[in-house]
Amino acid sequence: MKKIFLIVSVLLLAINSSNGSVVINNTQDTIMSHALNEVIISSSTKETNDIKTMPGSVSILTPNLIEGRKIVNVKDLSTVVPNFFIPDYGSKLSVPIYIRGIGERTTGQSAGMYVDNAPYLNKSLYDFDFMNISQIEVLRGPQGTLYGRNAMSGIINIKTYSPLHSQFKKVSLTAGNYGLFRAKASISELLTEDLGLLVSGYYDGNDGYFKNQYTNSRADKLRSAGANLRLDWKINNNWLAELKANYDYAEQGAFPYGVYNNGNISKPNYDYSGEYYRNVAGSSFNLQYENDNVLFNSNTGFQYFDDNMNMDIDNSIRDMFRLNQLQDEQSWTQEFTIKSNNDNNYKWSFGVFGFHNNLNTNVNTTMGSAMVNTIQSGFTNMYENSAGINPNRRPPLLTILDSEIPIPSQFKTPSYGGAIFHQSTYNNLLVEGLSITAGIRLDYEKTELEYDTKTAMNMNVKKDLQIGNMPPMVVESDSTLSVALQGKNKMSFTEVLPKIALKYEFDEKHYVYATLSNGYKTGGHNIQSFADIARDALEAKSNRGTEPTHDEIIDMISFKPEYSWNYEIGFKGEVIKDILFAEVAGYYIDVKDIQITDFVESGQGRILKNAGKAKSLGIDLSLSVFATKELSFTANYGFTKATFKDYYATEKNENGENIKIDYSGNYIPFAPQNTLSLSAVYNKIYKNKFIDRLNAQIQYNGVGKIYWTEANDVNQNFYGLVNLRAGINKGIVGINLWANNLFNTDYTAFYFESLGQKLAQKGKPLTFGIDINLSF
Fold it and tell me: How many other CB atoms sit within 10 Å of the CB of residue 477?
């Protein structure tokens, strides 16, 4: 920190005589985008409506807003957008997105992400450092017509700067408490009149926020770095080619969970450190043709991803269970779209999409010495409790010879699919201002599973025998009890996804709309449950000499698709001329076969299961008030009531018997009932003064109530975090001071139950620091 403040002092002396100015996209950079009429990219390669006036709930985040709210990754979007929530816990592997009560925190995804037209098929890749972002669009509600089955709750659409239109050189440094240090550098230049290059790199690190009491070291330390490249070539007046590539590496401490007791969370205390390592490389090639009638676009995407995760499953100092998981994935996507590109009332769009995803996963679960001793105690008690029984009928004394028992598993889960889609919009239908949008998508997907799980236990077996009137004798031998589960399975899904919307524009600044759309999320396999299946198979084989069949295994690990219908009405417009702008939407979502996350009985993994019917209803509200040229206010509020309509769960009672519990009417876990974001921004521009600009911003971000369990017996009440940011600009230099969670509010970011324990992770404490930005 001393080094940073020394740099600031030197820069302040150096820039006093500077005549430099900050120019990006030909507008002077400021936080108040409205005051500068910041350009919004309102078109897309396949949407038939202008993004600013489309019949649906859309939040558009511009560069100044992203910078002003210090949004550095997708998790920072949480609560800034109405009814949009991402709990920040675990690791970069975990990106659970909940939009309007619909979400998922394990396998698969309910919200899709696109970066410069290229889809991300695995939500484990969503958490990356934002660089050179020109716009972020969050579309709420099913977007299946244009974006597919992974867009059931919405879409996050990220766009980066094109070097053909924006040239700059930028360097930024951030330092703060908890060892925070972040550095970013970007250069965007024209190599020729029609060829532009953008290159950037970053480093991000901190020393972690929570200490593991067992190791006396930080449990969640982070180090990550990466680079991005974009090369744009305007071939001629009609053709444009865009090539992008990126690489990211991350290593971090992970899963800093502590014991939960009536709202109090103890410090992490476990013997096997949680760690997460990740390599991500990706590229996309975009080829676009445009004339006065049509816009054709081809996008080819490739992503490579490998990671390595270590986790203490029992989250204690006892050596019960530990996990090592390695994933290796390559995915290809290809999309062709063509749409009308004129001012006619009728607008149309057609597209074809295909993908192939190849994922290999190695999961190595180990039953540690404490678990082996627990199993051994069961064997010993069973033998001792049988004293007095006829020796020929008495169970043998089993003595485990292994200090630990590994359960290695290998999974190959390739998947592929394709879709054709169409959308039409007809403006000024019957009367001026009335429009209708209708679309449909035919989606096909096939997923395969090849599994190979095995485990073995070496034992000494002592058997009491009595032959005739001879004295009892003991027969002793060593043996190995082993289980090998191998097999293959295929699942395929075909779905038709329709959408229809009506919109009426009173004028170019006021309109109302009504939308009906179908959402869909594919089914699949739970590979995380195989360690439990192997352990149970081992026990069954020792007792009965049998193993589960392939069909029984597939029945245990499979889950069905999830379906929804979304009904929405809304209004967008200028309520008070040049002062108050409002967006409001009401919605009702009817869900069938909702997929929810549950822990397997042993706690050795999370699985998806279908939980009957559910519903979600609520409102989205956004207000922007421009009180003066320098002062503005924003409010974003979302209310959601997401509940089960018809759901009976199977639980074990105190006697170990399976019983059915009716959870109908209960709130869906992890879906917050309220999200709230309030901000006040003051931005003053000076001429011929010591500084060019003064800006200050205060934010309040709130979320809750959140129920953590299906029984709704554990929850996080509504809580709010206050963030501050203030800074000055002079010439090429910008300096900002900031603080997040100013009052050090204590809250629970994540809760779960495993191995009879209640566990949770605390939210991040007060953090503060300084940003230094140089723009040339």
Answer: 10
Q: How far is residue 94's CA from residue 109's CA, in Å, rounded to a whole number?
A: 11
Torsion of CA 271, 272, 274, 280, to 10 degrees: 160
Say how far apart CA 636 and CA 80 lie, in whole Å: 7
DSSP state of 667: B
**What CA–CA distances, in Å, run from 24 to 39, 134, 775?**
11, 10, 9
| pLDDT tens digits, one per residue of 89-114 | 888 888 889 999 998 877 678 899 99
- Kindly tell me the sign of the dihedral angle through the C-alpha atoms of 149, 155, 158, 164: positive
Strand partners, 595: 610
Instruction: Flag the least confident range among 346-350, 553-557, 663-667, 730-734.
Output: 553-557
> What distance in Å separates the CA atoms of residue 633 and residue 31, rounded to the nearest whole number?
12
In 3D, which of 310, 138, 313, 56 has the Cα closest to residue 675? Answer: 138
What confidence score (pLDDT) does residue 599 get? 67
Q: Rounded distance, CA 639 to CA 585, Å?
A: 11
Calpha distance 335→354 (Å, rounded): 6
Report the alpha-carbon distance of residue 302 to residue 331 in Å, rounded: 6
Cβ(222)–Cβ(181) below 8 Å: no
Decide if 99 contacts 154 (C-beta within 8 A). yes
Return the pLDDT at 13. 38
757 residue type, one letter: Q
**How many residues are listed for the chain in this entry?**
776
In this prediction, residue 104 carries a pLDDT of: 80
The pLDDT value recorded for residue 727 is 95
Q: Which residues on adjacent β-strands are paired with residue 639?
A: 619, 674
Instruction: Give, in order, the Cα–Cα distances in Å from 21 to each of 28, 617, 737.
Output: 8, 48, 21
Residue with more model confidence, 543 or 82: 82
DSSP 424-465: EEE-S-SSTTEEEEEEEEEEEEEEEEEEEEEEEEEEEEEEEE
pLDDT over 90 (residue 17): no
Rounded to 10 deg, the angle between the 550-557 and 530-544 helix axes is 140
285 beta partners:
243, 300
DSSP labels for 281-315? EEEEEEEEEE-SSEEEEEEEEEEEEEEEEEEETT-
